[in-house]
Amino acid sequence: MSRVDAVPAPVLVLAGVLSVQFGGALAATLVPEIGAAGSVVLRLGIATVLLVAIARPRWRGHSRRDLGTILCFGLAMGLMNFAFYGSLGHLPIGVAVTIEFVGPLTLAAVLSRRPRDLVAVGAAAIGVLLISRALSLPLDQLEGTGILLALAAGACWAAYIIFSGRTGAAFPRLEGLALAMVVATVVVLPFGLWDVARHGTAAWDAEVLLKGVGIAVLSSVLPYSLELLALRRLAPAVFGILLSLEPAVAALAGLVVLGQRLSPVQLLGMVLVVLASVLVLGLGARRPRAELPV
């Protein structure tokens, strides 16, 4: 057993949560400079180079099914990042992440077979409504574009969870993740080139590139690797609810890095989401591991 295998899977997930949200807060400072797509291409491009160098994946000898899994995983990853970074231009990071969580929340509801899980999912859904202020603001005052982008990112996040689990089961170590990162980079590259043409190459200075390296490590290399390793030992339903801690960590990162503050009602919504996570985490620890969907 390796040292990583000795670490409990929930600890790996929580470490990934901290990493990706502080990386997201750093990315929010980059989006206004080079655009959402440019930021995603920079992040994924650097992360892909690092992961390919570390994992040294085999490019041949894979079955059609495994290659299909990699294509779907990479597509979900690329579009998830693109939509989420786009939402950061309209919403505070804590709000964007909470709305994005609708994707994993829906996945958890579909996979859940226990009534208490459904109660937790319902509480988290109410929390999402509160933090988005959909119940308190007139429709014309809501950040519709940001909300739609965050919801799209959530749908891709659900697909990411499923195909990440399949990738971890089909490929050794980080080989599948490295191949999927290549796919994700290719998917968003055309949008990134358009952002470069729109903002100009002058915006890509040394500071931007340095931020890109930090974002690549914090938001891609470290969390994706930890999550992939965790999903080999953790059912997707439990993993999806564990990620409900993301909004609280995102709000903390937004406050520390960006100075973003949420209203009491939004914080109440976030508390509901976190309580749902704690409830399911406690139940999940006593439940036998479910089989990954195939």
From TrEMBL:
Superkingdom of the organism of origin: Bacteria
Pfam family membership, one: EamA
InterPro entries (UniProt xref): Diverse_Substrate_Transporter (IPR051258), EamA_dom (IPR000620), EmrE-like (IPR037185)
Membrane-spanning intervals of the chain: 37-55, 67-85, 91-111, 118-135, 147-165, 177-196, 208-226, 238-259, 265-285
Subcellular location(s) per record: Cell membrane
Keywords in alphabetical order: Cell membrane, Membrane, Transmembrane, Transmembrane helix
Annotated ranges, domain EamA: 145-281
SUPFAM superfamilies: Multidrug resistance efflux transporter EmrE
Membrane topology note: Multi-pass membrane protein
Main location per the UniProt record: membrane
One CC-aspect GO term: plasma membrane
Family stated for the protein in its record: Belongs to the EamA transporter family.
Protein name, as recorded: EamA family transporter
Organism: Janibacter limosus
Organism taxonomic ancestry: Bacteria, Bacillati, Actinomycetota, Actinomycetes, Micrococcales
